[in-house]
């Protein structure tokens, strides 16, 4: 492949990744969380969350919905880096809790596993500020009929 073709593909991928990051930021649900999405490469995502007492259950740790939010988002965006035309939908997600999440920064790392046509499989893991894994998940995602280009957060330019 000629060098300029490879560069064009890389810049197209980077535009898609930045548009997905804007899409994440534009979702109203994400106004409720101190979080930031980064898409470093195809099939990869990194979501940084700041956990505080506002999301704690009665025993003083983050509620399980927070685990799901972080793990699902990380896996979803890792998979959607491979789908440049359609918004993906979560069709199933399995969670494994390994340690309570308390206040501080938590990173969710997402990784695409398989599928590129209709169904995608991706996994994610949560790591606390000490570098310990605190949760893990695997999701199945399906192409929707929603064009990414139709979503204001995706199509808006910086």
From TrEMBL:
Molecular function, one GO term: acyl-CoA hydrolase activity
InterPro entries to which the protein is assigned, alphabetical: PAAI_dom, Thioestr_dom
Family matches, as CDD domains: PaaI_thioesterase
Superkingdom, taxonomy of origin: Bacteria
Residue span(s) of domain Thioesterase: 60-133
Full protein name: PaaI family thioesterase
Species assigned in the record: Erythrobacter crassostreae
Lineage: Bacteria, Pseudomonadati, Pseudomonadota, Alphaproteobacteria, Sphingomonadales
């Amino acid at each position: 492949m000629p060098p300029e073709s490879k560069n064009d593909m890389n810049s197209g991928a980077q535009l898609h990744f930045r548009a997905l990051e804007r899409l994440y930021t534009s979702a109203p649900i994400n106004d409720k969380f101190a979080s930031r999405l980064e898409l470093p490469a195809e099939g990869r995502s990194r979501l940084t969350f700041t956990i505080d007492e506002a999301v704690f259950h009665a025993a003083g740790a983050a509620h399980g919905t927070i685990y799901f939010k972080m793990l699902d988002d990380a896996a979803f965006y890792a998979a959607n880096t491979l789908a440049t035309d359609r918004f993906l939908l979560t069709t199933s997600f399995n969670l494994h809790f390994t340690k309570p999440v308390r206040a501080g920064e938590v990173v969710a790392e997402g990784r695409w596993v398989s599928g590129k046509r209709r169904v995608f499989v991706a996994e994610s893991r949560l790591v606390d500020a000490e570098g310990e894994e605190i949760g893990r998940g695997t999701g199945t995602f399906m192409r929707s009929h929603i064009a990414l280009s139709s979503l204001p957060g995706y199509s808006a330019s910086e």
